[in-house]
Amino acid sequence: MALLALLAAAAALSAATPTRTEAQLKALREKIEQMTRQVSRDAVERDRLSSDLRAAELSLGHAREQFGSVSQDYSDHIARRAALAQQRAQQQQALTAERTALAGQLRAAYMIGREEPLKLLLNQQDPLRSGRLFSYYGYFGRARADQIAQIQTHVQRLDELETQLAQQQTELASLKDAQQLQLQQLQGARDQRQKVLASLEAQTHTREQSLARLNSQRADLTALLDRLNRSLKSVAPPDTVSAFGRLRGQLGWPVTGRLEAAFGDQRASGVKWEGVVIATERGAPVKVVSAGRVVYADWLPGLGLLVIVDHGEGYLSLYGHNDRILKGTGESVAAGEEIAAAGDTGGRATPELYFEIRRAGRPVDPAPWFKQRAPAP
Asked: Best exposed site among 174, 225, 280, 357 by fewest CB in 10 Å?
């Protein structure tokens, strides 16, 4: 009885574990969302221009995404219309060939004459020859009937294709108008971002002002990481997490491109980089360097659209200046999985990725962790 009771208790504990883990993840997501809102409020209270830049960049990202979607639809319709036009040309060729064949059959029938079968029937000099000729006449008749049916089929198919082509043309015109509207909205969003950036530049035209802004942005990031680290202590890492500390020298670069700044390099304002900057193409896939769980996915002053991944053992990886974020808070990710698309958010002049590795909240040099000395171009 005691053994049965222990087995039942173990089974109950095992069954409760997934529910408890899910509850912990839900609580973690709620905490992170609360922190995200708090960080945004703090940034707004300290710096209205950061709030304006966030709004402008999110609006620009949305406009760019909408324009890309409409442009893709337009391209798809162009390809569909070209395929329909090719089908129409093929049907037209087939119709011409069937009509030519039918014309030949009609000419042959005319040369034979209508009375020829009757003459063969009355003239029984060679019954076998007459039978063969009647078979030929039957074959010609069936061939003409088949050709007429084929012609009717081709004509019907051509009518259908013409209707589809007309519909495609109407949809293309509508998509073209939508594309122009999206292009105007995209340009408006770009102009708004440029105005905010110009205001930011005017506000930080001295070294002291620039340094003050960088320190404020660093404080935002430090506060966020401190809160994240405190929250993560109460939640077990995901099952996919490997021992990150043993991956030193084995990681792949998170994005292709050119290394612009290394850990410890001096920035223009005099402070040092705490991660690496990789110049890349807009929309380039940003891949997580190791398995983990997304614990932050939002806009942050100085880093724009930022993704932070928890790898366990106190290790976090940071991916900043993204154009789009593809994973949400709480999602588990596998090594090499795409989590974002590269961009220039956070006020950057050109598309690039800012990458950091943190341990217990402190930045560490990422270079020794990579298999290659530099990212692939």
From this structure: 174
**pLDDT value at position 1?**
41
The CATH number linked to 171 is: 1.10.287
Do 280 and 319 contact (CB within 8 A), yes or no? no
Q: How many CB atoms lie within 10 A of CB 342?
A: 26
Contact 211, 269 (CB under 8 A): yes
pLDDT at 9: 41
149 in the same domain as 257? no
Per DSSP, which regions of the chain are E strands? 258-261, 276-279, 285-287, 292-300, 304-312, 315-325, 332-333, 338-342, 352-359, 362-364
Residue 115 pLDDT more than 60? no
Q: How confident is the model at residue 209 (pLDDT cuts 50, 70, 90)?
A: confident
C-beta of residue 294 within 8 angstroms of C-beta of residue 329: yes
Paired tokens of 165 = 């082509």
189 with 230, same domain: the answer is no
Query: By C-alpha distance, which of 293, 140, 289, 300 is closest to 222?
Result: 300
Q: What is the mean pLDDT of residues 117-121?
A: 51
Taking the model in full, what pTM does it have? 0.71
Between residues 137 and 186, the one the model is more confident about: 186
Query: Does residue 25 fall inside a structural domain?
Result: no
Q: Are residues 78 and 195 in the same domain?
A: yes
Structural domain including 255 reads 222-377
